[in-house]
Amino acid sequence: MLKLEFKDRRQPGVWLVESVFAIGSGARNHLVIDESAIDENHAEIRLVDGQLYLHDLGSFKGTFVGGQKVTDNFQLRSGDVISLGGVELEISDPKTRPAAPTGAGKAKSDWSLMGIGGAIKGRTIMIHGSMTFGRSSKCDIIVEGEYMSRRHAELSLKGGGLRIVDLGSSNGTCVNNKKISEHQLKPGDKISFDKTVFLVAGPVGGSAADFLDDEEEATMFRAVAPMPKAPPPRSVEPAPMASQNIEEHVSAASGTSSAGRGAMIVVGVVVVAIVAAVAGFMAVVGG
Q: Considering only CA atoms, which of 10, 12, 44, 49 is closest in space to residue 28?
C-alpha cells in the first residue's frame, strides 16, 4: 500500500486506498490544497487492480511527474514526485523507507540567513532541513507583501549544500539580482523577493555580516559620527584710537605749556637787564 505525502511535510501523508482519490482546492476533494495555482478539481489518482494511475482534470497550470506533463492514465510508482501548481507530492512506500536515525535532536546547521532589506531587516534565521518562504501562515519563513505568493520558494539542505527552488511564484525569486527557477547557494549570495532581501551565510566560517559590502555594512552597523562643534566666536578688541588721540592731545598740551614758560623767562631777563642799566646810569650822574 502506497502513501501520498507533501515533500515539505506541511500536512500529514494520506494512504491511497480510494478507488478515485481527488486532489484540488475545492472542499470536496480527498486532498485539499489551498493554493491559488491549484484548480478546484485539479487531478485524481485512480486505483485499478492494485496499481495507481494519475489523471489531470484539464487544470490550467497542469500536472507533472518528473518534469513530464501528465494528461491521462500515468502509472505511479513509489518514489515518483507529482508537481501541480508549485506543490510537490511524493508517492512513498513506508515499508521500504529506511528507519530514521535516533538522536537527541536535529543536527546543528551551518547555514543561516540574515535579513538586510525590507521588513525582515536585522532578523537572523537558522536553516534546518527543508524550509519554505511565503505569505501563508503555514510557511516556515513568513514574508508579508502583495508580491509574495502563498508558497513562494523553498530552501533545502542536502549533502551539506543549500539549494533554493522557486515554487511557481507569480513574481519570481532572485539570487544576486537574477531571476532563478532553482539555484545552488553559496555564502555571500543574496536572495531577494522584491524589496525583501536575505544574505546567505554558510559553513566557510564567519557570520552573515562578514559578507556585507561596504555600503550595507555602513548602513547596518556603523554609528553615525558626531558633527564637529563650531568654534566659539572670537571677541573683537576695540581699536586703540581713543587712547592714541588722548596721548596726542596730552603731548600737544605739554608742548604748548613749555613754549609759554620759555617766553616768560626771556621777558624776565630783558626786564632785569633794563633795570640794571638804569641803576648804573643814575649812579654816574650822581657822582
A: 44
Work out whether strand 141-142 and strand 130-134 pair parallel, antiparallel, or are unpaired: parallel
Helices (H) and strands (E) in the chain, counts: 2, 22
Strand partners, 114: 124, 199
**Beta carbons within 10 angstroms of residue 210's beta carbon:** 13
Beta strands at 173-175 and 190-193: parallel, antiparallel or unpaired = antiparallel
Closest to 21 (Cα-Cα) out of 61, 50, 49, 53: 53
Closest Cα partner for 213 from 225, 194, 199? 199
Q: Are 35 and 25 in contact (CB under 8 A)?
A: yes
Residues near 68 by Cβ (< 8 Å), separated by ≥ 6?
none
pTM of the model: 0.39
CA angle at 104 for the pair 101 and 109, rounded to the nearest 5°:
85
Q: How many CB atoms are closer than 10 A to CB 145?
A: 14
Q: Rounded distance, CA 117 to CA 196, Å?
A: 5
pLDDT tens string 181-216: 999 999 999 999 988 999 998 875 444 444 455 444
The number of C-alpha atoms within 13 Å of 36 and in the hemisphere containing its C-beta is 12
Give the CA distances from residue 96 to residues 19, 61, 78, 99, 208, in Å, rounded to whole numbers and listed in that order. 23, 32, 9, 9, 40
pLDDT at residue 68 in the model: 85
